[in-house]
Target: Secreted protein
Amino acid sequence: MANTETALKEALASIEGATGAALVDYTSGMALGTIGGGKSFDLNVAAAGNTDVIRAKMRTMEHLGLKAEIEDILITLTDQYHLIRLLSGRSGNGLFLYLVLDAKRANLAMARHQLKRIEQDLEV
Model:
């Protein structure tokens, strides 16, 4: 089992094209841990903003009467991919992993697969 810091380091090191990662509490919008990003990309601001994305999608699903659970949400920009993976299980309730990828270097299928594996090993 990996702690938050170890899981985020693994995401950045093992996922091709990853430039930043965070573990976020979407009930508060607070990042519980971040790695990468930089001066031009504030992961704490991104964490808070993506909390709104999750809340909006959950509201929409509720209005539609959908009972399925969100696995992940993908946002594609011209030069980046933003992957949001909601954690499942009791210890992950209300949390998501957030991954920023360089679109030129990333393989989305592999990134999703590896992020799922990292989630399974994460102990919160």
Summary: The mean pLDDT is 92. The chain has one domain: 4-121. The first helix runs from residue 4 to 14.
